[in-house]
Amino acid sequence: MKITRNEYSDMVKKASPNSPLAINCLWAFVVGGGICVLGELLYGFYRNMNFINSDARLMSSITLVGLSAFFTGLGWYGRLAKKAGAGTLVPITGFANAVVSPAMEFRSEGLITGVGAKMFIIAGPVIVYGVLASVVYGVVLYFILPNMR
Amino acid sequence: MLIKAFVVGGLICVAGQLLIDLTKLTPARILVTFVVSGVVLSALGLWQPVVDFAGAGALVPIVGFGHTLAQGMERAIAKEGLTGIFSGGFTACAGGVGASLIFGFITSLLARPNSQS
User: Fold this and answer.
1) In this predicted complex, what is the ipTM?
2) Are residues A32 and B93, on separate chains, in Cβ contact within 8 Å?
3) Cβ pair A107:B65 closer than 8 A
4) Across the interface, do B57 and A36 touch by the CB < 8 Å criterion?
5) What CA–CA distance (Å, rounded) separates A39 from A42?
6) Are A139 and B85 in contact, with CB atoms under 8 Å apart?
7) Measured distance CA(B43)–CA(B47) in Å, rounded
């Protein structure tokens, strides 16, 4: 049986489970927004404990990361992520999940070449390009802007 | 403030969902795009107003991580000058990345990988 590429892509479309854009976006909105509300509640909690503003933000991020690691360990975060998509990917908890998941998955390959090497396999590029972007900004701030005044 | 955080944070996640569904970008590329966007938006002075408006709604999404990086760079250069260019970014993200590293390592020791599925 010969099929053209177009026929094949039609067949793939029919065979794949349809993922309606609107429903995906609703899930992402509710779950992502919910995680941000949790972040704001944690921030209020740490402010009440007399942390200064920036430390309260940092502590709420660290708490979210810890919660994400815990629920990733239980396998719950991955299950939620299947429904919530970007709602669980885009918040800081998604970054933590991207660190914890490969660390767990590659545990069987040992502590050095498994956990140590693979832990930042997804989050690594985020750190590399985030820091590089900030370095570009730093170069502009230090070398370029002062000479323009 | 909670409602603002919910709506703004939710909308940023919807932007990510549109990227996933419409462009087939992989999650790693979306995270990179959002962090770099955060650095650029913050450098242009456009993100701090969003943070003032929505708090965690603007800081918890990974765009806020870029904002933290840019702010850390500003602070490091004001304080240290030239060496701040090298230390600013890592100093700013040390808390979040350190927490991920620590909790990731502990979880990898305690959790069974097959519970992931």
Assistant:
1) 0.92
2) no
3) no
4) yes
5) 5
6) yes
7) 8
**DSSP 8-class letter at A122:** T
* pLDDT recorded at residue A148: 79
As given in the structure block, the two tokens for residue A68 are 């994400």
Residues whose CB falls within 8 Å of the CB of residue A137, separated by 6 or more in sequence, listed in order = B39, B43, B70, B73
For the record, the structure tokens of B61 come out as 């999404």
- Angle of the A92-105 helix axis to the B62-80 helix axis, nearest 10: 100
In angstroms, the separation between the Cα of residue A75 and the nearest Cα of chain B is 4
| A46/A142 Cα distance (integer angstroms) | 35
How far apart, in Å, do the first and last CA atoms of chain B sit?
36
Q: pLDDT tens across A7-54, in order? A: 666 655 555 555 589 999 999 999 999 999 999 999 999 999 999 999
Q: What are the DSSP E strand ranges found in A14-143?
A: none
Which of A123, A94, A33 has its CA nearest to residue B28?
A123
Structure tokens at B93: 């993200």
Read off the tokens for A48.
């009440």
Q: A110: left (phi > 0), else alpha (psi -120 to 50), else beta? A: left
The residues that bridge with A91 in the sheet, in sequence order, are B61
